[in-house]
Amino acid sequence: MKVSNVELWEMVAQLLSQAVSNLHVHSPPTSPSTPFDALRIPHISVRDYIERMRKYSGCSDSCYVLCFIYIDKLLLNNESFGVSMRNAHRVILAGLVLAIKYLDDIYADNSVFARIGGISLNELNILEAEMIRLLNFDLHVGAELYFQYLCKLHLHHQKLSEETMTDCVEENTKPIRYSGSVASMKTFVSTEDVDN
């Protein structure tokens, strides 16, 4: 699905890149505190990392939206967990792998995703298991919630690009509450939008 010649992966990449760049977290290279934390901040940008995943994974567009929903649910359900410059890439990789496995009928195995993501197979297996655990083993996203996120991604993109888009705008669509000032995307949706 394209809107204004921008694909869904680009909208998700744009939003996640903006959120991570607004964190201003420059953690020194220390021992990781969660399985998602890298020893150093990766040299590849979040946007380029997501583009790499798109280029080599061959997943459907819907997987990027579902990945974003998983990350948001992860943050909403685990207040002590936050996305940082050191863990954003691994959180995105784990979320996208889960989304691909949940939505797509045909997909590669974890060894391929690990190579694409630039980590070992063992690391990816640990990240996938940890994300599933942090999501309380609930990977289902209803159509209504998916559509709410999809519309809000479009609206956020519209706001950033100042283009006109009327496909997703409805009278009762809630405004985006993303502030970019917190260490997560929790404020992207209102809490009543998320099924708990």
In a nutshell, what does this entry contain?
The protein has helices spanning about 10-20, 45-55, 60-75, 90-105, 110-115, 120-135, 145-160; strands spanning about 1-5, 5.
Which structural traits does this protein have?
196 residues; mainly alpha; two-stranded antiparallel ribbon; 2 strands; globular
Account of the 3D structure:
A hairpin with a 2-residue loop joins strand 1 and strand 2. The longest helix is centred in the last third of the chain and has 19 residues, at 143-161. This protein has seven helices and two strands. Residues 1-5, 24-31 and 163-196 have low confidence and may be disordered. The protein is an all-alpha fold and 196 residues long. The chain has a two-stranded antiparallel ribbon with strand order 1-2. The protein has helices at residues 8-21, 46-57, 62-77, 88-103, 110-117, 121-134, 143-161; strands at residues 2-3, 6-7. Helix 1 (8-21) packs across helix 7.
- Average pLDDT taken over every residue: 76
Distance between the termini: 28 Å
Specify the number of helices: 7
Described by the principal axes of the CA atoms, the overall outline is: globular
What is the helix content? 40-55%
Order of helices and strands: EEHHHHHHH
Note the beta-strand portion. Answer: under 5%
What is the CA-based Rg, rounded? Answer: 16 Å
Structural class: mainly alpha
Largest beta sheet: what is the strand line-up?
1-2
Instruction: Provide the low-confidence segments as ranges.
Output: 1-5, 24-31, 163-196
The count of strands amounts to 2
Largest beta-sheet details = 2 strands, antiparallel
